[in-house]
Design goal:
TIM Barrel, six-stranded parallel beta sheet, alpha/beta, 14 helices
Length: 363
């Protein structure tokens, strides 16, 4: 039975990607805004695996061909502050694109594609990364696993100890993935100390500057891509999980990232992006700190549509928890989101008295 359902689901997904159904599907998403989050873009020359540039180009062409509205985050904020008037509530489905972290590949690969289709996009930058003060912690861990000659690890964290052994690259990758997962939800100072311990145990020194595959966009490239229509938003200085940080560190991460961004470019938007972005990664403290810096909205990684509730006066704080979908790396799932079918699945599930599982709205 489950195999039959799986086959039916795959068939429906393929059908949803068919061009002939696009006009009908588009009507399902009236009044909904899909905000997508992207990260890395595939670059074979540097060995970077990420979003396929050719597929991104196809998806932008699809949106243009079928008359979806392409919103900038400035448009989104304006619609929220106008109470959803001006077309959000009843117009064709709207789509907005965001890219997180601030890798160099965005300027070389993605920005020209978005410009080709006159599609707004906002890059959220980790300002300390661009300032050359650091390279992102998960890239450093990956570097250590890639360059070690060791085939085992005793991983110690918070009084717990876990042993890993590997004889193949696949087994090493599994160990790396588990270590990355365990490091994500700890405070930054403990994480840095743990990564230093990994470096010693692996007998690998992490370079002061990231290799080209992990390099940030430069501030000069920020200003150059701004001329293509790209806008920029703050994503903290060092990319910590803010809810785990002290009051002073949390405030500094938000204030300093906003200050540096405004210092380097006029193409900034008053929208903050929480690192990690899950509901437990931010709270009232973080919302108030972003408001004090003049931000008018903030983005999460909660998988849902931005809809009319974010524009109601009583939803003022909800604008500081705007949801985003992870960008789907295939066309049927992409159409599933932009056409509003993920919302339809939510409603059908509730009608049957079910408790919505997180995966039901995933791309």
């Amino acid at each position: 039975m489950s195999a039959t359902l799986s086959l039916s689901r795959r068939f429906l997904l393929r059908v949803m990607g068919a061009e002939i159904l696009a006009p009908a599907l588009r009507t399902l998403g009236r009044g909904l805004l899909s905000i997508f989050t992207l990260h890395r873009f595939t670059d074979p020359d540097l060995g970077v695996v990420g979003h396929d540039p050719a597929l991104l180009r196809y998806h932008l062409a699809y949106l243009r061909r079928h008359h979806y509205r392409l919103f900038s985050l400035t448009d989104v904020v304006r619609q929220i502050e106008n109470g959803g008037t001006g077309g959000w509530g009843g117009g064709a489905p709207a789509v907005a694109f965001t890219v997180d972290d601030g890798y160099a590949g965005f300027a070389r690969i993605a920005a020209p594609i978005f410009a080709e289709y006159d599609c707004p996009v906002t890059l959220f930058v980790t300002t300390g990364f661009l300032d050359g003060q650091l390279w992102l912690w998960w890239d450093r861990v990956t570097y250590l696993f890639k360059h070690t000659q060791r085939s085992s690890l005793v991983f110690r964290l918070g009084g717990e100890e876990r042993a890993y052994r590997w004889s193949t690259s696949g087994e090493r990758d599994e160990a790396q993935h588990d270590v990355l997962r365990r490091l994500e939800w700890i405070d930054a100072p403990l994480r840095e100390a743990t990564i230093a311990g990994l470096s010693r145990q692996f007998d690998v020194e992490v370079p002061a500057s990231p290799p080209p595959a992990c390099a940030p966009i430069s501030w000069d490239e920020v200003r150059r891509t701004a001329k293509l229509g790209v806008t920029f938003g703050p994503h903290t200085v060092t990319h910590p999980i803010l809810s785990l940080a002290s009051e002073d560190v949390c405030r500094w991460e938000i204030e300093e990232s906003c200050r540096r961004l405004r210092q380097e470019t006029d193409a900034w938007v008053p929208v903050f992006c929480y690192p990690n972005g899950e509901p437990r990664s931010f709270g009232q403290r973080e919302v108030e700190a972003t408001q004090r810096m003049g931000c008018r909205a903030a983005l999460t990684t909660v998988r849902d549509y931005a809809a009319a509730r974010h524009a109601r006066p009583q939803g003022a704080l909800e604008r500081f928890a705007l949801p985003r979908f992870p960008y789907p790396d295939d066309t049927p799932h992409f159409v599933n989101v932009v056409a509003g079918l993920a919302r339809l699945k939510q409603r059908l599930h509730r009608l049957h008295g079910g408790v919505l599982r997180p995966g039901l709205t995933s791309a």
